[in-house]
Amino acid sequence: MKIKSLLLLAALFYSFGAFAQSGELKKGVASYNKFNQVKQIGTPALGMKDLEAAKTSLEKASSNDKTSNLSETWTYLALVYADYALVDKTPAAAEYKQKAIDAIAKAKAAEGNAEQAQNISAASSTLAEIELNAGVTAFEAKDYASAYQSFNKGLDYLPGDTLFSYYAGLAAINAKDYPNAIEKYKVLLGHEDFSTLPQIYLDLSRLYMISKDTVAAIKYAEEGSVKFPDNQQLATQNIELNLQAGHGEKLISSIAGQIEKNPGDARLQYYYGIALSSNKDEKAAKEAYIKAVELDPTFADAYVNLGVMLLDQGINMFREASKLPANQQSEYNERAKEGNALIEEAFPYLEKATEVAPTHAIAWQNLKTYYQIKENAEKVAEIEAKIKEL
């Protein structure tokens, strides 16, 4: 009889102990939820007593056999430790952060983890917020390398997050860490809803140019301009890079389409002139350059390109004339006359370029060429002196 009574008493004590530890888990959860309510309205300091109570109860639950194998226990401990790491401004914050990381790992591996997925994600988000704050502080202090490390660490907690990917890429650009900048920005291309996706394509193209990868730079400029046909910056980047690569012919229709959308854009007319000139359509190129300077009378590069094109045509005309046999003097005279007319037509554009851009070395060089052809030594010397002053 005594033995039975003792066994019953032991069972009662065991049940009470298990209930007590289960009660600690419930108390911890309830206390944390109270803290979280004031945290959500922006006053976490008012809930620190509840956070401390949650910590005490949940640490007890985590050491008991009946509740230490539950995902709920470790999930809420992770939430508690993550919030301590967020609000604590002492060196202890790093210890809390590590405890939160360890608790998240145990929560994911423990019984009932599926039911705690949302809370586990919340704990990870808090850890990510810590890295965001550290990254912003470093970025504002112009410590871009540290900012990159913090933003990149945030991606450990929120893999693939577009905000952290963007900030990490931006910090890497400022740190001149172009490979990592490219890696982070390329991740963003898979998110069609990312608000600044056109800028990402543009920046990727520029980053590849800095990295001396022209093929990739053109690739992303073209992809971006096709995906966002109304984006002027992407269209311009695509045009400029393809022109630099000698792909003017294939761009003619593309630029013409952009001109239809932006008829008052002098730079597009300028690019159109370059593309047409590269395709040997010098008459149409001339019209495009003239249109460019009509739209922008201070457009020095357009004046230079127009003047140089006419000057080269005139020089080539003289070269062709010089190849004629002596018995074709009249034809020689005709071609020489045409060549001279082209050279004279070039003069006002070359001169105008130096007027609107007095420090434009290429404009002065080509104006000097004009005077060399005209055998005006005084003007040549004057321009040479001017060029030395630039």
Model description:
By secondary structure, the protein is mainly α. Among the domains are: 24-140, no CATH class; 297-390, Serine Threonine Protein Phosphatase 5, Tetratricopeptide repeat (Alpha Horseshoe), CATH 1.25.40. Helix content is 79%, strand content 0%. The chain contains 18 helices and no strands. The N and C termini lie far apart (113 Å). Mean pLDDT is 90; it is low at 1-21. Residues 1-20 form the signal peptide. Keywords: Signal, TPR repeat. It holds the Pfam family TPR_11.
Kindly provide the radius of gyration, computed on alpha-carbon positions and rounded to a whole number of angstroms: 36 Å
Contiguous low-pLDDT stretches (5 residues minimum) are: 1-21
Total strands: the figure is 0
First-last Cα distance: 113 Å
Q: What about the largest sheet? A: none
Name the structural class: mainly alpha
Q: Percentage of helical residues?
A: over 70%
Number of helices: 18
**N to C succession of SSEs:** HHHHHHHHHHHHHHHHHH
Per the principal axes of the C-alpha atoms, what is the gross shape? Answer: rod-shaped
How much of the residues is beta strand, in percent? under 5%
Estimate the mean pLDDT confidence. Answer: 90
